[in-house]
Amino acid sequence: METLWQMEANIDDMNPQNMEYVFRCLLDAGVNDVWGVPIVMKKGRMATMLCVLCREELIEKAAQIIFKETTSVGVRYFPLSRIACERAIKTVTIDGEVLHCKLCWHAGVLTNISAEYDDCRAAAVKTGVPLKEWQRRVREEAYKQYGQDS
């Protein structure tokens, strides 16, 4: 278990297209995760709650980015506890295509295999085989290679 910090800022007067840039700046700064939640503020104004998950030492840096790149004038933050799976990025080769996948374990048990979207998308475009088929094949091959003894 680890302690992380969640930061929140309600933003109701900024072009929503700019959020992608804000997300990228925060992720590039090293935060664990960034997301937006649609909310309704006073007087019925539609807004976004910008949420950031980070280590304590990144709170000030993340706040600086939020103030610099958004119209927010305040940020809330609070500690939270998290249990995270162990993770590893592995590769599999299928029909000559090298594809990445993320494997996750909890208490030594494989709990999830996620095919890397960009790799599967590129393989689908190149071969004409549907994206979902590449995703299935990657998970299946990764389980064969890494699922039993990892």
Automatic annotation (TrEMBL):
In terms of superkingdom, the source organism counts as Bacteria
Q: Which UniProt keywords apply?
A: Nickel
Record carries keyword Transport: no
Q: Which InterPro entries match?
A: Ni_insertion
The answer to whether UniProt assigns keyword Hydrolase to this entry is: no
PANTHER family from the xrefs?
NICKEL INSERTION PROTEIN-RELATED, PYRIDINIUM-3,5-BISTHIOCARBOXYLIC ACID MONONUCLEOTIDE NICKEL INSERTION PROTEIN
State what protein this is by name.
DUF111 family protein
Organism the protein comes from: Megasphaera hominis
Taxon lineage: Bacteria, Bacillati, Bacillota, Negativicutes, Veillonellales
